[in-house]
Amino acid sequence: MIQSADIREWRTHDVIDAGGHKIGALEAVYVDTSTDEPAMATVQVGLPTRRHLVFVPLHGAVVGPGYVRVDYDRSLVKKCPAIGTDDVLPVEKEAALFAHYDLPYQPGANGERQLARR
Question: What is the annotated signal peptide range for this record (predicted)?
Fold first, then answer.
């Protein structure tokens, strides 16, 4: 399992898919608020003048020299709900993010977020 402290060291390194295709640069790590374990990463994609952030799950991710390999295809990641490079994921978009990857979504008992940026 990847630890939050470890993966933060890989900020700005390449994120690649299982086939070795570059998706973009790792921007931040989001943890599951119920376990405090890394759950998703934001990846900076797009043209230099039109960059945005997409989310990719970290379950099954492998860290290598200068890269983080994820279990999701680049085309699926790039079609994920996106946010601006200075934005934060709105709570109302969390469910759509999990649905995009066919992952179960479990907000807190009082409607708390499932993801928190670290």
Answer: none
